[in-house]
Specification:
The protein is mainly alpha-helical and 502 residues long. It has two domains: 1-223, no CATH class; 232-459, no CATH class. The protein is 80% helix and 1% strand. It has 18 helices and two strands. The longest helix has 40 residues, at 315-354.
Length: 502
Amino acid sequence: MAGIGFELKKLFAKKGLFAKMRAYTYAGIVCAGPMILGLLLLIGLQIMGQMAGADQHVREVLNSMITYTLLFSLIATNTFSLVTTRYTADMLFMNQQKKILPSFFGSVSILLIIGEIVYGIFLHFAGISLLYQLLCLILFGELVVVWTEIDYLTAIKDFRGIILTFAIALVCSWAVGLALTLGLHLSTIPSLFFSVCFGYGIMLVRYYILMIRYFPEGHCSSLSFLKWLDEYPQLVCVGLFVSLGLFGHLVIMWCSDYGVQVQGLFYGAPTYDIPALLAFFSILATTINFVTSVEVNFYPKYRNYFSLFNDAGSLKDIEQAQKEMNATLVQELTYTYARQFFVTIVFIVLGTMFLPYLPLGLTEDMLGIYRILCMGYAFYSVGNCAMLIELYFNDYRDAAVSCLVYMAVTCILTFVFRNYNLKYAGVGFLIGGIAFTAYTLISLRIWIKHLMYHVLCSQPVVAVEKKGVWTKLADRAEKRYQKKYWRQDHDVTSDEDDILEE
């Protein structure tokens, strides 16, 4: 995110209302563009389905397949997301950009192989036709690549290219859907599902073009990044636990008394899903403000503090830099939290007033769930911001524990309350968000209080490389890669190759 922060700081430095609006627009699209694209595509599919004369069941099957595919892809990619992000940051710091692109190919290959097999097994028993299974697998593969590309795109400053890709994908997806359903009058579900695959396919290709323009072609094993799994195993836990906590309460409610079987293994809970979707939009404010406020203003103080250790700064300068960094962090987090809770109150008040008039079928119980989930998402976003700051300070253990607390409390309490009175739906998610925020802020405060100790004294006296299973696999792959290219460069014959092997 620091790469984006540098460029946003330039944008926010420009004076004028339109310059500020432009900066916030860039931040919003870069940070929340994929989520906005997914929602607009789903809305467009509903409208096109109605225009094509598809009944309610057909539209529900289509929405369920796309939703399940989105959730599977997000959970899969989040397991590697923070590891590859850390690897990319380290390679940029060490000026080894040629090792970045191979790690993209390696991580995508692993996720696609494992993910397609696991999701394919689920789809085989899901109770849908072979054509629908194939479309789900295609979309899953595209989404895995797109989500991974976005992780690497945090180092790219081509905001116009990212926004243009977003717009082109959306328009082309709608156009293809309209052409197939209203123009050629083809079957609704395959046509609209293909239009979604087409839109994300455009994003995949154009984002890849942006990547290869920025990152040079590498000459190393695509599995070199696996060493970072042994070095930072907590990052895998962070990504996985946050995903399960954020999406787990939805799945649990699908299996409750309020769940509805759409078809086969595809379930939904409209009385819970619709309020959850509407409430989720309330955290867009924090998503954007965290990048534009915390990272743009906090990161320079953070960088100055740690540069003093490398540049032989005096103890007095280091202590002063730490005070300035801490003050900036508290100020920016306070502003971010205040904005989030203000937006949450606005969402609750305006939602209670106007949502009943929209054709969403919201009942009084659903409005109550909406209000609870708005508060739950507010606490989640606050805790998530603090957790990301913990990652800044390399406090990976506390970050992983806080995400575990969030996942456990949210899922357990949602399971406990799942079949109670509908007015209790969402309480588990709210309490989980409160526990997440409380633990993360307390652990962050303790870590910063002893920051000097963690920087100077907590590291081993002698550096020891962790030789786990993943490191051994990465080393073996690197040796095979180097041997292969050494033979090609030196034009080694098969007889000479046998001699070298001996």
